[in-house]
What we know:
Helix content is about 35%, strand content about 25%. The chain contains 8 helices and 9 strands. By secondary structure, it is an alpha/beta fold. The longest helix has 14 residues, at about 110-120.
Amino acid sequence: MNEGISAEGLGVEIDGTEILHAVTVFLPHRRIAVIGANGAGKSTFARTLNGLVRPTSGRVTVAGLDPAREPRRAREAVGFLFSSPDAQILMPTPSEDIALSLKAAGIPRADRAERAAAELARFGLTGHADQPAHSLSGGQKQLLALAAVLASAPRVLVADEPTTLLDLGNARRMGDLLLDGDEAGPVAEQVVIVTHDLELAARCDVALRFSDGRLAEQGDPDEVIARYRAEFA
Length: 233
């Protein structure tokens, strides 16, 4: 059972600048949207969830783990999908990239090729298994990055602007995968999506809106989004 995401007085200061201020929230929901203007603190909040950013005050727990105190266990439990797949794809080919993730997850070497092939098939990348990763389309790269993250079966998936670089078709496919899963089931017990795509955010179970480093509100996505839109009307 997933213990959810909890922040208590969470604060982050970077180079003397306060990025997050006293964020307190409890999130047992399966699909969580994080919205707000650029520089509002969305991505910083997301990166505290697997220890990429350490709090300077307060604490955060995810799936019963404190990423600041247990960074290795937290990164095993919390997968992170960056907005740019080029920052995440490390190996020359898709099959090698997924095999690297499987190695990090402790999968025996004898089983990695079969598991990697299964992950590539899941995301429609079988025909590109040995193609140079840099030659994939933007949508294919983002699917490969997601496949590599999910290869280690994280309990929680955090996706930071996962559709920003995608065309409409690939953005819809990515949104469907993140929120609804596929034939293999949900991609994780909880999915946190940081996004400017308000249609995608509206499909979540709860929305958080950040403003000037603070959690301005949380609640029903339609209501939170409507008030956010009103600010810019």
